[in-house]
Design a protein that fits this description.
Number of helices: 8
Oligomer: single chain
Radius of gyration: 33 Å
Structural class: alpha/beta
Largest sheet: 16 strands, parallel
Length: 616
């Protein structure tokens, strides 16, 4: 009896074990079906992302992978933003959930999850072309209208009749496009003959020609001549304007192509994407004014767009690494203002994304109207888009109440995290008496192109390392080869734009100190002529009218301003467009390349796989 019972127990145990093993095998089989479905889903998702079929991060879908009498297996694909740092804004998580479900019991199911982390690799113009790539493939979104043509000019004035009003102490480095009239130097109450003499002297003094040429198109225009570039007119200039340009020795031409600034859609800045199909971001909403604040990009606002619905006033000590947008007017009133589009570099200047130097930048300023008040001290780096009129300039020559320290020499410069660059002096200087509060600035010489000769611009000094002979400056600039520099007190009233600027019309104000009565201008011309008569008698070379006006000793008994500074042309409004960047009219920056039939294999985005995980 005992033997029979033991046999039954052993038999039952064996059957039970076999049943469990069979169940485990069946479970494993169902898990494999779910795993295969998940892997098929991931393959489908990655192929879809590399094609024109991908609908973006919101794309979510389910597909049946396999179905039979036992059940069916499906995969569900979804996408999500990944990471919470600026260097991860191009990353996405791709989720593929594989599920096997019994045909007879919905509660009998097996799941398998795969998560892949991928990073968008935008194909940019100028990149290194590797095997499997094509230079024809470009993910950059084409700009609206004529924006690409407009950004080739340092200054673009869409409308007339006075497209550009220019006065002494204004300077433009680069080419100009003007719809209609150029109005120059009409505010001073001088006679037409004195005005003509002054402008002729500027042309003779600051314009040079290559050997054997007198053609103004071959000329090189030197600082601080008011216009260092060629002017393209849509309307043929009047005879008086042509005479002014001849006196100044400025090259000009006409065109029958009417360029226009694209119409604005501010909603594309308030809510935006980095790339078509990518995560959506919200610009930071601003109040009516900015004061004593530093703003920059964040993972939630990677382009650093700061948006004002209405007018915006910018006062002292405002630094913005990004884009200021106003649906009305931006007025710059304060000192120590610096605005620049984000350059995708970290604290030490190392790019946080690949090919950051090739990345397109959106405009630094976008507004209906823009006004740089006379007393402001503002620097803008990047493109400026103004849909109505831009006014500015007219700041007096003024310096802070500090020691008058001056140095000259040569230096190299490298940009680090915006808004700073490091200047390395090549000659040993004692920097101990300088201060890092912006009272001092360094002029760095820059070579222009075309008609623009050697020029430069001022950068405030905000850090001093006497031991290593280095200065930290506010501004983005690189000079691998040594360039000339000057250090001195920083101008307190100065508007600088380093990048292309477009508007309907420009009105650059006069300096009040240049507005003399006609009798005083006649007085200046009389004494200048008298000195040159004396120079002839003494055998000295003649002095030009503009140079004579700069000498403080020629103003005995005048106001202290003239006895200290004279009337010089050192710009208090300076526009430069010397460095070419790729600019986008508005976000997004990228869209999947459509190669059509000829380049179908290169259509869609391209992604790199950076992580992969699986979990049953």
């Amino acid at each position: 009896m005992f033997t029979l019972s033991m046999s039954l127990v052993l038999t039952y145990s064996f059957i039970q074990t076999q049943s469990i093993l069979t169940q485990i095998s069946e479970n494993g089989s169902k898990r494999d079906l779910a795993m295969n479905a998940a892997r098929a889903g991931m393959t489908d998702a990655l192929n879809r992302m590399n094609s024109l079929d991908w609908a973006g991060v919101r794309d979510q879908y389910q597909r049946t992978f396999q179905s039979d009498s036992d059940g069916s297996s499906t995969y569900t694909v979804s996408f999500a933003a990944s990471g919470n740092t600026l260097d991860s804004v191009l990353e996405l998580e791709v989720h593929s959930l594989g599920v096997w479900t019994s045909a007879t019991n919905n509660n009998m199911r097996s799941e398998y999850q795969i998560t892949a982390k991928v990073k968008l690799v935008p194909r940019l113009a100028g990149r290194t072309i590797l095997p499997g790539d094509s230079a024809d493939a470009n993910d950059s979104i084409p700009n609206a209208g004529h924006f690409d043509l407009i950004t080739q000019y340092a200054l673009f004035a869409e409308r007339g009749s006075n497209s550009l009003i220019l006065d002494p102490c204004d300077r433009i480095d680069g080419n100009l496009w003007l719809d209609d009239r150029l109005n120059m130097y009409d505010d001073p109450a001088w006679s037409s003959s004195i005005r003509s003499t002054f402008m002729q002297d500027l042309g003779n003094r600051f314009v040079t020609f290559p050997a054997g040429s007198t053609n103004v198109s071959d000329a090189t225009v030197h600082y601080p001549h008011p216009i260092a570039g060629n002017i393209t007119f849509y309307e043929t200039p009047s005879s008086s304007v042509r005479n002014d340009l001849s006196n100044l020795k400025v090259s000009w031409s006409t065109t029958d192509q009417a360029l226009t600034i694209p119409s604005p859609d501010y909603s594309h800045f308030s809510t935006y994407r980095l790339y078509a199909g990518g995560p959506e971001y919200q610009a930071v909403a601003l109040g009516s004014s900015l004061y004593n604040v530093t703003l920059g990009p964040t993972p939630d606002n990677p382009l650093g767009i700061f948006y004002r619905s209405g007018s915006l006033y910018v006062y002292d000590n405002v630094i913005v690494q990004g884009t200021l947008v106003s649906t009305s007017r931006i007025t710059f009133s304060g000192k120590g203002i610096y605005i620049t589009a984000f350059n995708w570099k970290g604290m030490d200047g190392t790019p946080i994304i690949a090919d950051s130097d090739l990345w397109p930048r959106i405009p630094t300023l976008v507004a209906d109207k823009i006004d740089f008040e006379r007393e402001t001290q503002t620097t803008i780096e990047g493109a400026v888009v103004c849909h109505d009129d831009l006014d500015g300039g007219g700041g007096s020559v003024a310096y802070p109440d500090a020691s008058d320290i001056q140095f000259t020499g040569t230096a190299t410069v490298s940009s680090i995290e915006q808004p700073h660059s490091i200047v390395s002096l090549r000659e040993n200087q004692f920097l101990g008496n300088l201060t890092a509060d912006g009272n001092y600035a360094i002029w760095l010489s820059t070579s222009g192109s075309g008609n623009t000769g050697t020029t430069g611009t001022w950068y405030p000094i905000v850090g001093i390392d006497n031991q290593n002979q280095q200065l930290t400056i506010r501004g983005e600039i690189n000079h691998v080869a040594p360039t000339g520099y000057r250090i001195r007190l920083h101008k307190q009233e100065l508007s600088q734009i380093r990048g292309p600027v477009c508007a309907e019309r420009f009105n650059f104000r006069r300096l009040n100190e240049w507005v003399l009565s006609s009798s005083l201008w006649n007085n200046r011309a009389y004494f200048w002529d008298l000195e040159n008569q004396l120079r002839v008698i003494l055998g000295y070379s003649l002095i030009g009218f503009s140079e004579w006006l700069e000498i403080p000793l020629n103003y005995p008994g005048w106001d202290s301003y003239y006895q200290q500074y004279g009337l010089n042309l050192e710009p208090t409004l300076h526009i430069q467009h010397l460095v070419d960047h790729e600019y986008r009219w508005e976000p997004p920056l990228f869209q999947p390349y459509d190669g059509g039939e000829a380049n179908a294999d290169y259509s869609g985005y391209r992604w790199s796989l950076i992580d992969w995980s699986e979990s049953p």
